[in-house]
Amino acid sequence: MGLDYSDQDDEATSERALADLKDKLNKEIKIKEGSENLLEALNTKKAKQTKDQRCRVEEELNSSNRKISQLKNEIEALQRPQPPPSASRGRLSGLFRGDFLRPAAMNPSAVGASRLDIDAESESESPTFTLAEILQALEMEGMDWSYYVEKANNLVELLKRHPLLKYDLVWSVFGLRVQMMLLSDSKEVVAAGYRMTRYAITDRKSLQNIRELNTDYLVILSLVKETRASVEREQALKFVRAFMEVKGGVREISRAVLRAVVAIAEHTDDRLRMICIETLAEILIRDPELLVSAGGVGPLIDVLVEGSYGSPEALVGAFLNLYETPHRRKYLRSGHELEVLFSAFTDPLVCQGNEQKLRSNAKAIATILKTWSGLLIVSMYEFRALKSLVSAMYFPESQIRDMILELLFDVLRIKPPSWSASFLAGRRLTTYGRVANLKSESSPHPATSAQEDEMSQRSLVEHYSTVVLAVFFEAGLQKALLNVIETSPDTALKRKATLLLGEISKMAGRLLPSSYSASLQQLPELFASASKFGNAGRFISTNAIYQIDSVNRTLERSVTAAHVSLIKAAVEDGRMLQTPRQAEQAKAKTTLRVDMDESTFRSLLIDTQVLGTVNFIKWKWDLIAQIVEGPLRNPKRMDEAIRGVKFVKRLTAFYRPFKYRFSDIKNTKPNQRYVRIGCSLIHTLLQNPSGVKYLVENKLLRQIAECLAHWDRMSGLTSPSPLFSASRLAETLCGGYFEILGTLSSDLKGLAMMERWRIFNMFYHIVELKDRDDLLQAILGNMDYTFDGHLRVLLSKALTACSKSIRIFATNLLRKYATSRSPPSKTSAGSVNAEWAIRLLVTQLYDPDVEVCETAVKILEEACNRKHCLEYVVKCRPALDHLGDIGAPLLLRFLSTSVGYHYLHELDYINQAMDDWFLIQLINDQGRNDVYVTIVEASLYRALHMEHEKPQRNANDGQERTNYGIVPPHFYRELTRTTEGCKLLEEKGHFTEFAATIRDFGMEKDDPEIILKVKGCMWAVGNVGSMALGAPFLESSDVVHQIVKIAEESEVMGLKGTAFFVLGLISRSIHGMEILGECGWDGATTVMGESIGFCVPVDLKRLFSIKPWNRVTGQEEERGTTLAMKVATTDEDPTNAKILEMVRDLGNTVLLKKNSGDLGRLKAKKLANFKDPRLFRKVMTMLECHHYRLPARRFLIDLFDKSVMRQIVLCEDSDSETEGANDESLAITNPRSPTKIA
Fold first, then answer.
1. What is the DSSP annotation of 464-499?
2. Minimal CA–CA distance to 262: which of 297, 231, 229?
3. Quick one: which H or E segment has residue 289?
4. Where are the alpha helices (DSSP H) in 9-50?
5. DSSP 3-state assignment of 554?
6. How far is CA 543 from CA 423, 482, 1095, 1164, in A?
């Protein structure tokens, strides 16, 4: 939580320094981006007017680049592993410093004289002897507080250097030193004592030894002190938190101590409040019974409702963890804890203007609705909580309405289209130009075959969104949106509600069964209002209908345009393997006609300023780009530009390396346009015979080859400042020459030119360089490997002979060739590319580095989505035994075809895999079927909770994509794809065993191991049932009915969720849909009647059938607490009895002031009662058994004399008092059973 603890050691200091450096780096990056944008804007203006300003901007840009480089180096230095620090300084002037071996009188020059001497001394020291010296030094009394702090720090440093030493501590001796330090009047000494004790903790037995020192009393005393003792309070709290770092240590935290932590968490002005909230949340997960008994749930709920906690998702997650199973959620109140979050929206008077509270509660509610247990909890009581959220949109409060709409966009995972900003701003959507850029919005990884479409249909995220959408429709979302559209005075809010209504209508038609979506599409209330011709309000309804229709038509055009773009991309084989330059060219808009007349063309050439000046800054590059992409494609215009005028000559001269014009331009984002136009010019020249001839005779390629020769050791050419040095590649546009060479490599004529200047020979020699990975990546990443020749040989050499990073980089380059979209035609160039790439990928499976092998496996697995590629991979007969689990997904792909099945059968892989998936592994007590459950749940959680943004992907290296929320390959699903696999599955009888396990243990609610087994069996059944050949297995048993029963009646929320998703898998097949229809479930289908794999019950309430439960109050615990309070509040001494009665009433806020005044007057009389250890123990028992605010606790403890604590901790009171005190010392000695009386 960012607390400034007093024992900040080097690690914490390094973290702060690292955070500061990262902040500075982010600022410099923003300055750099701003300078680049300003420079790009200045380039569009006249050079004379902006010359001075451009110089200043370039200076600022260079300065930012230097600072960024320096900051990165400093960050890397801090992130390197460091040796143990010699000294650490906290905020109390080095209070907890280290390196006690250094004498106090040593001067700085002696400190730095010999580092080796210090290390040798550290290695040669005797840990036990040093420990004895430190403990003996701590025996001295009457010393200054800094003396004890220094010795305690020395002991901590000793335990850090020798971690095993703490296991040999003699607690009878060490414990006495701890007690004396914790009883000190100096807060610094007490803090050092807590820190020293914390580093001595080893296991649960050591915690018990520590508690036998009566440290619970001391911790409570430290926690309730005022803020001026912050260093002591911080260390005491860290000491309590250290208990949770030990296995089973949370069970050693007494309820009395936890009550003190709860009191701090309730005190809104306490600086330790948030760290106490975190502590309570962790205990809620580890030991909910202890937290509930200490009253710790209330502060967690309060801080959630207040919206003051920085990460409400973490607190909500702690509650959701308890709701999962009946034996854990019995400590909570039937979901009421989470319902209070919705009050922020249903009480507009309280939240009016409090945007932070609304936003925090919205984040918490979004977290709830993105988990299965959270959705079930808020859907209890007939969707009461969700109905209250939806009904809040009826309040005429724009801020609440807008926040709820944003929440719905997030929960339903609706990404607003690109034209949404224009629509919300009030612009019309009648022009088709609004969806002109839809191609860029489409997925960067479009489905390339029916197999990938099948994968997208299996998205668990969409299935989950289906049920969330159905729940919101059940809660009345559609009517609430219509009300916002009709009544809201805010035009932007109206349009946002209209956009959301259009999106959810589209989702309903695509994801929900027709029985749900049919009635939702009609909008009967809106049409009824619009048809009342005598009503003046009908015009509002009519306008709403028009807006909804406009949005729907635009959304439909969006889908159509995206679909057409995908079809075009699949048909055009020539654009299948585009380089980055070609991909950008494809997006460019050519506005100039190719067949323009000569006079117009000459006028355009003059307008570019290329013919008038050699200063390229004055050239109009936008117009040059249009001319290169347009008129220059005409042979006549090309001849004229080459022979008639100097247009092409001056352009190519600008790019010649030894002119030092293009090659000296800074490598910034705006300047990348020079690279793009250069690649476009080369591409245009290659399309024309005159352009090819000119390019052959030009000096451009010759000079590029000469620059490459500087890095070829066989050429004999050298240069004091080579053009392709690491610094120039990073800082200038010299890297653009490799993109130009990549454009040449995409054409046979360009390859011939490269061969003429022996560029390939130089590439072969450059690949052998060991210290120029940047140069190798620039070469390999920009070449086009479509044609068979030198470049493929070069890539194969890089795949095997270069460094690890280059091998991984080159392996990733093969993805776009191995996963090409071409059909399996013998004449298809794309098919040949795929086979060539697959052969190289199979070779990479035998790379000595596992990471390279893993990358190759993932690419091959993606390539196997196409049947012809899968058959070719099997034909290569790769051996994957040496890869173990890494190669398992690829082997599963082989099972989907008969050829692959027979190949794996020959290797005896199938029988071994069946045993691994079916039987329990003795090593980790989990088979692959159980591990599969963990993988699916982790993937679904990651998909639901990560931001649904555009994935960033480098077009050069073809980095892999991660499909979260997709059902991963399952052995039994792949086995069921072939008749041979189905026959083997029937012979083994595994499906019958899975069905029997589901039938016998499906309603289990306590044993986590059995629940895991049932989940694994359900996933296996669902994957088998999703295949067409799996029909006989489903029909031979009633397993589908059992899974439906689990989904509707199970008390374990995780089992209900798994059953729901498994039923979605089963609904993908025709026979599965029929069986589900008999069970009262309906599935969504396409217009052709094909199932898409999403199903919900006809009666939605059957799925959300969690019944309220009775909270466990712990009758035995209550009886014990009552008995303890009865003993604690009675005393033979009338004065003690009166004091205890007033202490009891301090918990009553009405009587607080009166009783505190009476106790203060008794304290002023200096009665001997406040020195009685027995009375103090009784007061501490009352503080544990009942709720008291932090000021009241502090007041009560301050009433007693300081000598009382010393008597109790050191057991200095008389035997008779101790014997009597044992009867009242309750929770302090037993954290589990505060009601047991000794």
1. HHHHHHHHHHHTTHHHHHHHHHHH-S-HHHHHHHHH
2. 297
3. helix 288-293
4. 10-43
5. helix
6. 15, 12, 35, 78
Q: Which helix (H) or strand (E) is 1084 found in, with range?
A: strand 1081-1085
* DSSP three-state, residue 77: helix
What sign has the CA pseudo-torsion 1185, 1187, 1190, 1196?
negative
What is the rounded CA–CA span in Å between residue 530 and residue 541?
5
> What digits encode the pLDDT tens for the residues 895-930?
888 888 888 888 888 888 888 888 753 334 567 888
Token pair of 69 as six digits = 């480089």
Q: Please list, in sequence order, all residues whose beta carbon lies within 8 angstroms of the beta carbon of residue 350, skipping any fewer than 6 positions away.
A: 343, 344
Residue 564 has pLDDT above 60, yes or no: no
CB-based contacts of 209, cutoff 8 Å, min separation 6: 171, 175
For residue 255 the two structure tokens come to 């309820």
Q: What separation in angstroms does the CA of 99 have from each of 352, 390, 803?
A: 56, 62, 42
Burial category of 979 from C-beta neighbours within 10 Å (exposed 0-12, middle 13-18, buried 19 and up) = exposed
Cα distance between residue 24 and residue 77, in whole Å: 16
Reduce the DSSP state of residue 904 to 3 states and report it.
helix
Rounded to two decimals, the pTM is: 0.76
Sequence-distant (≥ 6) Cβ neighbours of residue 634 within 8 angstroms: 594, 595, 596
Ramachandran sector of residue 214 (left: φ over 0; alpha: ψ -120 to 50; beta: rest) = left
- Residue 1094's SS3 state is strand
Structure token pair of residue 127: 């840990």
Distances from the Cα of 845 to the Cαs of 857, 860, 1045, in angstroms? 7, 10, 46
Tokens 């037993």 identify what position?
A: 1230
- Which of left, alpha, beta for 1144 (phi over 0: left; psi -120 to 50: alpha)? alpha
d(CA 163, CA 171): 17
Structure-token pair, residue 569? 């991309």
One-letter amino acid of 654: F
At residue 562, the 3 state secondary structure works out as: helix
Catalogue the long-range contacts made by 275-280 (C-beta closer than 8 Å, 24 or more residues apart): 275/1, 275/3, 275/237, 276/237, 277/303, 277/309, 277/315, 278/1, 278/314, 279/237, 279/240, 279/241, 279/244
Q: 1082 forms bridges with which residues in the sheet?
A: 1096
Residue 530's pLDDT is what? 63
- Over the stretch 38-87, which tens digit does the pLDDT of each residue have? 777 777 666 666 677 777 877 788 788 888 878 887 777 776 654 444 33
Terminal CA-CA length for the chain? 40
Q: What is the pLDDT of residues 229-238, one digit of tens each?
A: 889 999 999 9
Number of H helices and number of E strands within the chain?
71, 2
Adjacent-strand bridge partners of 459: 966
Give the relative orientation of helices 230-242 and 273-286 as an angle to the nearest 10 degrees.
10
Report the run of H or E that residue 1025 belongs to, with start and end: helix 1008-1025
Contact 472, 379 (CB under 8 A): no
What is each CA distance from 895 to 910, 977, 1031, in whole angstroms?
A: 9, 8, 19
Average pLDDT, the chain: 79
How far is it, in rounded angstroms, from Cα 304 to Cα 361? 7
Distance, in Å, from the CA atom of 616 to the CA atom of 43, rounded to the nearest integer, reads 10
Q: Residues 957-978: pLDDT tens digits? A: 444 445 677 888 888 998 998 8
| Number of C-beta neighbours around residue 426 at 10 A | 9
Count CA atoms closer than 13 A to 1137's CA, side-chain side.
6
| Residue 102: other Cβ atoms inside 10 A | 15
Question: Which two structure tokens, joined as six digits, stand for 1198?
Answer: 């301050």
Quick check: 119 pLDDT over 70?
no
Residue 591 has pLDDT above 70, yes or no: no
pLDDT-derived band at 500, boundaries 50, 70, 90: confident
Strands (E) across 1045-1182 are located at: 1081-1085, 1091-1097
Q: Tokens 């090659």 sit at which residue?
A: 663
- CA 905 centroid distance within chain: 40
